Amino acid sequence: MVVVKWGLILLITYTVLPTVLGRTFGIGCLKRLPGGERQFALTFDDGPHPEYTPQILEALRAEGVRATFFVLADRAERYPDLVRRIVDEGHELAVHGVSHYPLWFLGPRRTRREVFQAARNLEEKFGVRIRWYRPPWGLLNLPAYLGSWYLRIRPVMWSHMSWDWAAKGSPYQFATKIIRKMKDGAIVLLHDSGETLGARPGAPAVVAQALPLVIRWAKQSGWRIVTLSDVEKRSFQARWWRWWDSLGTRLVNSKPVGEPGRCIFRLAYRRYWWWPRTLRDGTRLRFGDPVAELHFDNALLESIVKDAKNEWQLSLRYMQIARESLPILAKAVAEDPRWQTVRVIYGLSLLTRGAERAGFTVSPVRPAWLRWLATRYMQGLMRGYHPQGQERLVHGIQKLEAKWVYMSPETLIRLFGS
Questions:
Q1: Which has more pLDDT, 196 or 141?
Q2: 243 and 160 in one domain?
Q3: Is the dihedral of CA 341, 344, 347, 353 positive or negative?
């Protein structure tokens, strides 16, 4: 009885414990991307396949999207040209094992061959760095779990199960099912082979035909499709500020303006709680007046930063998105009943020169302690969302102060309503 008890404990420690830590709690594994950025990753398992992988690659190439392919090493040996095509077309290569054996039934030596030796062979043959490993069926064992920390090949799970290996019906129906369940930061599990246990023959062909529908929906809705390595590793400080900003967005109940991904502004309904103020157009703001509190969509701004190739392009893109967003804001204020009763639209900003040129009234934050807090908070957001936020603050941006910016709805509609 004692032998059975200890055998059960060892079995759970070897198989169940690492799987629960990685798959359920995401400890030591990647199971979803950072939220707040309207992005998701397409990942493909079990390939390459001589019929389906080219179809999927062609669909991705036609839409200009990259994905992450978790290949089986024995298939990579059989179809090296397909693997080279995956790499040459800019997709990310990752390892799915040698022959799709569940790790729960493998000892340490076989695990080493299935995971780490397979990764090294792929690196040597195709000249890439293998950073990711997805265990078949999502089942980890202790050697793979601990070895991934030491050898820096991180296990990857998924957060969006597409059930594509049993895909039936039309590509439109399958695409609709994926879109309906899409969440920010999702890692979508797909397959480019239909020869593993439980797969329905021909299912990957449905996936290949549905991909353009999913990708076009994503582009039209302001989503970014990324590879796993596109998501940069953030410092603890940056992650903390992003979490705090996300919490603040929920607490103030700010609402996006216009269609997602098109407007940099969010609005929250408030009562004015500060001293009386007169705007440039003569509008008088008094304590207790209904106002629309202006916030930025920081995730959208960050996506602009990532897409810009240099500072000049970034400045132009900022001006472009601001010019596009102000008419959207004006239309929302004019037509949405939520904002038609507000007296003033106002918010905090570090970069007030452009706001003043656009017609906003700019005034300092008082008293001094509140100005100090507001400035530090907004600088923290810059650290959290801007890839070079810390460096820019060190090199002089810390001299900028947070200021209030105000504009009446009438002025906004007059300047940008048409």
A1: 141
A2: no
A3: positive
